[in-house]
Amino acid sequence: MNKKATFGYEWKDGELVINAKESSIVKWIYNKVSEYTDNPPDYLIRETIEYSEEELTYDEAKKKVSLSKILPYVTAELNVRIKEFEIRQADDIQRFLESEPDNEMTAAIEKEYILQKVSGYTGGVISPREGRYIGKAPKRRRGLKNIIEGNEPFVSKEMYESAVKRIQEGIKHISNKEQDDDFRQRHFFKRIDALLPTVDLYKLDESFNSSDDSYAKEVLKKINDIFFDVYGADYLGRSNEFAEMPAVIRGQRSGHVGLAILNIDIRTGEQWRTHFLTPRGIIERHKYEIFSDDYNYVMETYPTYDYWYTGDKNIDFENEPDDIINILNSYNPDQQGMKME
To answer: If phi over 0 gives left and psi between -120 and 50 gives alpha, with beta otherwise, what is residue 272?
Structure first.
């Protein structure tokens, strides 16, 4: 039986030894968390200014960059650096991790950071309970005996304690709003996950694309009711950042109509992630998606598409297709919908 080693270590000749590549990554993570807590990246400072409900100077915003921004940024930067390292087939990962990012890499990190937030990032780059990297020996009980398993340290105690201290302090200062937004996104998906087993996806697709759209209206209403229950409103204002929203979609070339869950940046209207409800099941189209049959189905049906959601009460629907308006207004006749491309 192959033993699974903790990231940063590997089994060799029956002994747990340090893995040079993985341990370099772990050390880099600890360093970055500490570094960015004291000196956040410019992007996070500007984002804090933009989303703040009060006017902040650059220096004031620098002190207000929260841990909920720093951790996904560290993860994003690591993802981009590792990908670039593998593309270039470099041999010294530590030097590559520590190199100064150019403008192209910085832009890629910022884009990946948004994807990290959209994906429901919850933290956990470093767990304060994990002391194995500094050689702390965890205890495991087996029968009446305590089994001591100590690992060779490769992170200094000072580096570890500094990073953990910053994380513990940062957690205290994550605003209630940030916690509430994260909770709502996760809670919405849990409610949708509970609903979907009761939905006939074949019938749903057929209903959207036939003269009898009653089942499509019924399912859309159930999902919209969940949205209203979780977010407390039919539409969201600029005080929100990201939200998962039900939407009616139509392929621009195929004309096929369906239902999807979109992740929307409320402040910009930009769409970041889509879960398609299809006869094949729930399919997510993502930049890392492998070209499977399901992916090909989505690309054939919705390579480009229009989408409408009940997310903005001020949008005029006079020039939109009657069938789409009919479906959306079945949820709330007094609530206009929003269409985007």
So the answer is: alpha
Dihedral (CA of 72, 185, 166, 238) sign: positive
From residue 29, give the alpha-carbon distance in Å to each of 125, 127, 208, 287. Answer: 8, 12, 48, 25
Q: Do 151 and 6 form a contact (C-beta atoms < 8 A)?
A: yes
The pLDDT of 314-341, averaged and rounded, is 56
For residue 27, what is the enclosing H or E element? helix 20-38
Amino acid letter, 275: H
Please state, in angstroms and as integers, the Cα–Cα distance from residue 182 to each residue in 40, 117, 120, 187, 308, following that order.
Answer: 21, 9, 7, 9, 24
Question: Residue 3 gets which letter from DSSP?
Answer: P
Phi, psi of 238 (to 5 degrees): -70, -5
Its pTM surpasses 0.70: no
CB atoms under 10 Å from CB of 238, counted, come to: 10
Categorize the per-residue pLDDT at 160 as very low, low, confident or very high, splitting at 50, 70 and 90.
confident
